[in-house]
Amino acid sequence: MKLELMNVTKKYEETTVVDNVSCVLTPGVYGLLGANGSGKTTLFRIICGLIAANEGEVLYDGKNTSAEGEAFRTILGFLPQDFNYYPEFTAMKFMLYIAALKGINGKVAKKKSAELLDQVGLGDVQNKRIKKFSGGMKQRLGIAQALLNDPEVLILDEPTTGLDPKERVRFRNLISSFSQEKIVILSTHIVSDIEYIADEILVLKKGKLENRGTAQRLIQEIEYFVWEVEVKEIEVRAFQMKYTISNQKNTERGTVLRIVSELPPTADARSVTPTLEDLYLYYFREEV
Ligand code: ADP
After folding, report:
1. Do residue 114 and residue 238 come from a single domain?
2. Is residue 282 part of a domain?
């Protein structure tokens, strides 16, 4: 299993939205990290064959996916961001409907749907209407439908948007449990979503693949770029104007600012261990 993007570029009018992206992905969980508008959804749509790239190609096991067409779609599972759940359908009816669209019918569809609904913790509510579901339940249903065809490539576009922390943890665990022997790519701008489950992080900035690597390796790269300084309250504003502040806390001695900066912000700034949150700010400081 190998998904390969070769120099993929997408332009809308004069704007380059996906800019010469190349990467090779083998089974594992990948977190596509980018600020809003960095091109994540567009890249996913290209991989899924929903829109065509202006340049470059997507290969799966060495074969061009747009030439393969239907054959590639049978090994692909996709949870789009703007997924339409049909509120009047029950969870089971919805699964059977999607199964039919994927060409899975009859007993096989029923068995597979029941199995998946059980696995995502919706077995007990399979005959309830989707309009009664919480956001987390809908997203679990979204994952279940994406898995109906036992995909080798599973793409999840911002799957945790709108979920509360508890649902988010549950969702993460679910993704981990489904990720064996699959290429799973999930996009997010929430670092904690991928901190624990992603084997690798792909940093997409303004359409360009800026970096990729394990969270640990990416964090190491900014090892001396995160600082803590103690400032007086009246100085805070000036620091905010000049630097990227990743945290601010008030203590008895004054305000402690956590600053992401390649150079020390003051002579007595203390270098501190970076987190993935700092990493995000390092890459997307202009966007936040
Ligand atoms: P993300 O998923 O990272 O938020 P998108 O891929 O949705 O980013 O969008 C990237 C950029 O491309 C945005 O600036 C967006 O406005 C632009 N864009 C996306 N789709 C279209 C389109 N159909 N026509 C014109 N611009 C688009």
Report:
1. no
2. no
Q: Closest ligand 1 atom, CA of 44? A: 6
- Closest residue by Cα to atom 22, ligand 1, is 12
Q: What is the pTM of this model?
A: 0.92
- pLDDT at residue number 288: 58
pLDDT of residue 160: 87
- Name the average pLDDT for the chain: 94
Interval between CA 242 and ligand 1 midpoint (Å):
30
CA 39 – ligand 1 centroid, Å: 6
In the chain, which residues have pLDDT < 70? 288
Q: Does 149 map to a domain?
A: yes
- Residues 227-254 pLDDT 10s: 999 999 899 999 999 999 999 999 888 8
Q: Are residues 58 and 200 in the same domain?
A: yes
**Residue the block writes with tokens 């036992």:** 150
R_g over Cα of the chain? 22
Residues 6+ apart with CB under 8 A from 172: 160, 193, 196, 197
Among 199, 219, 239, the domain-final residue is 219
pLDDT given at position 165: 87
Are both 180 and 126 inside the same structural domain? yes
> For position 193, what pLDDT does the model report?
85
Number of domains in the chain: 2
Pocket test for ligand 1, best of 21, 42, 43, 188 (most atoms within 8 A of CB): 42
- Cβ–Cβ under 8 Å, residues 114 and 126: yes
Our answer on whether the CB atom of 207 is closer than 6 Å to any ligand 1 atom is no
Can you tell me the distance from the alpha carbon of 191 to that of 201, in angstroms, rounded to the nearest whole number? 10
In a shared domain, residues 102 and 210: yes
Range of the domain at 232: 224-272
Residue 16 half-sphere exposure toward CB, CA atoms < 13 A: 12
Ligand 1 atom closest to Cα of 189? 3
The closest-lying atom of ligand 1 relative to the alpha carbon of residue 36 is: 4
